[in-house]
Amino acid sequence: MTVPCACQNWLRLARGLGPDALGQLMPMFLWLDPQGRISALGPALSKILGPGRLLGARFEQHFRLRCARAGRSGVASALDGRRRISLSLRARPEITLRGSVADVGMGASDGLLLNLSFGIHLAEAVREFGLTETDFAPSDLAMELLYLQEAKATVLNELRALTVRLEDARRSALSEAQTDPLTGVANRRAFDLALERLIRGLGRGGQSFALAHVDLDYFKSVNDTLGHAAGDQLLRNVARVLEEETRRSDLVARVGGDEFVLLLRGASDRDRLHSLGERIIARLEEPFSYGEQTCRISASIGVALSPDYDEPTAEVMLADADAALYLSKRLGKGRCSLASASAAAEGMRA
């Protein structure tokens, strides 16, 4: 290896400094004799290789030369003519070292001088070997780069946390915007959106469904006799009953003062729907206690089924469910009526 004149002068200076002084300038230097044995090494490199006999050890005991030239034996031969090298630690082969190499070539005991540093594995090496700023040369930008990397990671973590908080806030706001604040069930907006989704789904082969309109009977008398606090508690109790009698896939919504609607996914059996309505009414007719007072209510229910329509719309289904509801009231309240498939019997559209 030919060494320029200026480099020769520097190498003479480096040799004259001795290992300790050289280690202050290059904490990760490695000096190899012509046989490829370690003659001296910097304090940082010594810290990385760990305790044990290092001086006199062969280069191959601790390092693996990456991309060694084929047919070359011995580290001196393998490095002949090289200015830059890439190594890996035998104890930690995933950690790569990069560096420059110079053939000292000024005496029988001279050999190769390697000045090493970490590449992309800097942060991993600092954590693994407990390196500090003193383990790097004063002119080395490694620690500054590490600080920048850590600062970047901190900023990215904060941004991720902020994104999560914003998404949680968005979902919370969306949930509040679609939830009835008194009963905790869905509100009118949520019901309208869900109904439109179900109707659009029918055109893509989605499940049929039923729409049930529930209106409380005798609720006004509870408000008038026991007050609005009792009425609010009664509405919460009604919402609880409706959720208990329906499935998790169904939707319960409060759309008015004492009006609720149910979206029953996959429901198309008229007998089962009628039985569900009667079961709900029976539970709502159970005595309700508020303080020392006991009151009773009932409910009238009207149901419209999506299979009864060639192309159902929200307006028509709601109108037919309302008509079935008012039929229940005309027949004496506390009843469940299903809209006729022809939507003509018994004044369903009246």
The gist of it:
This protein is of the alpha+beta class and 350 residues long. Helices cover 44% and strands 20% of the residues. The longest helix has 36 residues, at 142-177.
Labels describing this entry:
350 residues, alpha+beta, five-stranded mixed beta sheet, 13 strands, 20% strand, rod-shaped
Q: What portion of residues is helical?
A: 40-55%
Averaged pLDDT, please? 83
CA-CA gap between termini: 104 Å
What order do the strands of the largest sheet run in, or round the barrel if closed?
Answer: 2-1-6-5-4-3
Secondary-structure element order, N to C = HEEHHEHEEEHHHEHHEEHEEEHE
- Indicate the overall shape: rod-shaped
Class from secondary-structure proportions: alpha+beta
Strand content: 15-25%
SS summary, helix count = 11
Major β-sheet profile: 6 strands, antiparallel
The tally of beta strands, per DSSP, is 13
Whole-angstrom Rg: 41 Å
Which runs of at least 5 residues are low in confidence (pLDDT < 50)?
Answer: 343-350
Domain GGDEF: 207-341
Protein name: GGDEF domain-containing protein
Pfam families: GGDEF
InterPro entries: DGC-Regulatory_Protein, GGDEF_dom, Nucleotide_cyclase, Rev_trsase/Diguanyl_cyclase
Structure description:
The protein is of the alpha+beta class and 350 residues long. 44% of the residues lie in helices and 20% in strands. The chain contains 11 helices and 13 strands. It has helices spanning 5-25, 43-49, 59-62, 75-78, 122-129, 142-177, 188-202, 219-226, 228-245, 270-284, 314-330; strands spanning 29-32, 38-41, 63-65, 84-89, 96-103, 112-118, 209-217, 251-254, 259-265, 288-290, 293-295, 298-305, 336-338. A 6-stranded antiparallel sheet has the order 2-1-6-5-4-3, with helices on both faces. A 5-stranded mixed sheet has the order 8-9-7-12-13, sandwiched between helices. The protein has a two-stranded antiparallel ribbon with strand order 10-11. A hairpin with a 5-residue loop joins strand 1 and strand 2 (38-41). Helix 8 packs antiparallel against helix 9 (228-245) and helix 9 packs antiparallel against helix 10. The radius of gyration is 41 Å and the shape is rod-shaped. The termini are far apart.
